[in-house]
Specification:
Blueprint (H helix, E strand, L loop, with lengths): L2 H7 L5 E6 L10 H9 L3 E5 L34 H13 L6 E7 L3 H10 L6 E5 L10 H5 L17 H4 L1 E3 L7 H11 L5 H10 L3 E3 L1 H4 L14 E6 L7 H14 L6 E5 L5 H4 L1 H8 L2
Helix pairs in contact: 2-12, 3-4
């Protein structure tokens, strides 16, 4: 891409976005958005957190008739820690040193590992963007927000299988044979994604979110995380992380770092704009 064409899009050719996925997803969730970003002149890389992507080992009965053990079999991902996840993000950021400007983007539960990585190495991040994502500046655990009164209207709690503490993971069943379960999954995360595409999206989801990701406290400080300019991209009809709880996270973070508030942008639609409107999302992620 030439410098003149990059100027027409408003994106410097030496900018890269490092993309961190949310629960049950992986780097593949960003594919369409990355194509759109490339069309706008922005380079990007997508991270697979530990226990996701090809490391997402499902319960042994997941692909068997009747799916035995889905409610009781301990997750193979119980040893995955928040530190492991943050270090994966840090490794990706460290490989971006040849770019002049690095934008770290996190979706949903990915906000915890991304925030911890930014706290540990703020010099590697020029801006951090939260896409309807957990911001730990006000409360240290994602569970603290998902379980708050502001998130009481959220859907999807019935999707969780078994006891997360006993399983060591928050487990869902993307290949459930129950039409009502599948419809609840669609309504929670993908209600504005074309129906013919939703089945392809759900078939690629993993079953287990390592419990450490939503349950481990993440501490960020004004002197380190707080010195990084930050953007929050709200999803206006989010049914997994409600607009009210998104606002709560923004407000509490701004109180924790007074004088340097979030830049806030809003997208229409669901918790999964990378599936429903990747071109609009790409534009919203850019500086």
């Amino acid at each position: 891409m030439t410098d003149s064409s990059a100027r027409r899009t408003g994106v410097a050719p030496d900018t890269v976005l490092v993309l961190v996925h949310g629960a049950w997803h992986s780097s593949w969730q960003w594919a369409a958005t990355r194509h759109a970003l490339a069309g706008l002149g922005a380079a990007s890389v997508a991270v697979d957190l530990p226990g996701h992507g090809f490391d997402a080992q499902p319960p042994s009965g997941y692909l068997l008739p009747g799916q035995p053990g889905m409610l009781t079999e301990k997750s193979a991902l119980t040893t995955v820690t928040m530190d492991d996840c943050a270090e994966r993000v840090l490794a990706a950021l460290g490989r971006m040193r040849h770019y002049r400007r690095v934008v770290l983007v996190a979706h949903s539960a990915g906000g915890g590992p991304a925030s911890l990585a930014a706290e540990r190495a703020p010099e590697l991040v020029d801006r951090i963007v939260y896409l309807s994502a957990f911001v730990p500046a006000g409360r240290p655990r994602f569970h603290d927000y998902t379980g708050s009164p502001e998130n009481a209207a959220a859907r999807g709690r019935s999707l969780h299988l078994g006891d997360p503490e006993a399983l060591g993971a928050v487990r869902i069943n993307p290949l459930s044979p129950d039409p009502a379960y599948v419809e609840e999954l669609r309504q929670t995360h993908y209600h504005d994604t074309p129906p013919d595409r939703f089945d392809r999206w759900r078939s690629a989801l993993s079953t287990d979110l390592p419990l450490a990701i939503p349950a481990t406290p993440v501490t960020v400080t004004p002197a380190r995380w707080g010195r990084i300019p930050r953007t929050f991209v709200r999803c206006a009809d989010d049914r997994a992380l409600t607009p009210a709880v998104q606002e709560l996270m923004i407000t509490e973070a701004d109180l924790a770092v007074p004088g340097d508030p979030f830049a806030v942008r809003t997208l229409p639609g669901s918790h999964s704009p990378f599936a429903a409107r990747p071109h609009e999302l790409a534009a919203a992620l850019l500086p």
